[in-house]
Amino acid sequence: MAISRVKLLRIMGKNKTLQGTLIIVFLWYTAHLLVNSSIIPSPYKVVITFFTLLRGDLLLHIVYSFYRILLAILISLIIAVPLGIGMGLNKKMDELFSPIIYILYPIPKIAFLPVFLILFGFGDMPKVILIITIIVFQIQIAVRDGIKEIPKGLFYSIETLGLSKTQKYVHLILPAILPKLFSSLRITIGISISVLFFSENFATVYGIGYFIMNAFTIIHYEEMFAGILGLSVMGLVIFKTIDVLERKYCPWIL
């Protein structure tokens, strides 16, 4: 028994995700005991409900939300990375696009949801576009700033060595922008999931936001918390994926 406890402590010491999970569960269970109401169900009952509901519609709701946010990330990268690189390398392009970003970026994007619903209908498109408007500006600025932080001497060295344009991007520009790109994704993903939750309460019957609010409406608190748990798991998967990609493509910063 003593050996198994030692092994458990070692695993906990190495696995920071497990440590964080245990702390959250402890605080959650403490709140459950203090409130002593079905409004905050016990973690055990919620986990059981979560896995039970996964056999039904909950998995479908999570898949719909996951699809929307991943599609938005992909489209944002396709738009923002080339524009950010262009702004970082070309002063005139930076002078053209920066004022536009500075004007639009501070506006709460959720204010545009009614406009997107009118323009693009009541399917996935307005929700995806809403998330894109959150992610794209952040990535664009991060990529631009990453290039601007490259010392001028490194560009001169690349030219002196006679490297091709492709080699310049592979060995200089991409290593400079990737750390900032991953950091900007981490910052925007949390905001994007929050906005997705809000947007899924309008003109849809699938999505984790719809599931949570529907469970709240019919006073099924265990199901509501199971939906919140699903939202948390979805975010954890995305963040861990970003960490894995960063370790693979930016080993020098770890």
TrEMBL record:
Name the domain of life this protein comes from. Bacteria
Establish whether keyword Ion transport is in the entry: no
Q: Which family does it belong to?
A: Belongs to the binding-protein-dependent transport system permease family.
- Listed Gene3D superfamilies: MetI-like (1.10.3720.10)
By what name is this protein known? NitT/TauT family transport system permease protein
- ABC transmembrane type-1 domain mapped to chain residues: 62-246
Q: Does the keyword Cell membrane apply?
A: yes
InterPro entries named among the record's database cross-references: MetI-like, MetI-like_sf
Q: How does it sit in the membrane?
A: Multi-pass membrane protein
Q: What is its main location?
A: membrane
Alphabetical list of PROSITE patterns matching this protein: ABC_TM1
Report the leader peptide range: none
**Residue ranges of the TM segments:** 21-44, 64-89, 101-122, 128-147, 187-212, 218-239
Annotated organism of origin: Clostridium punense
Location in the cell reads: Cell membrane
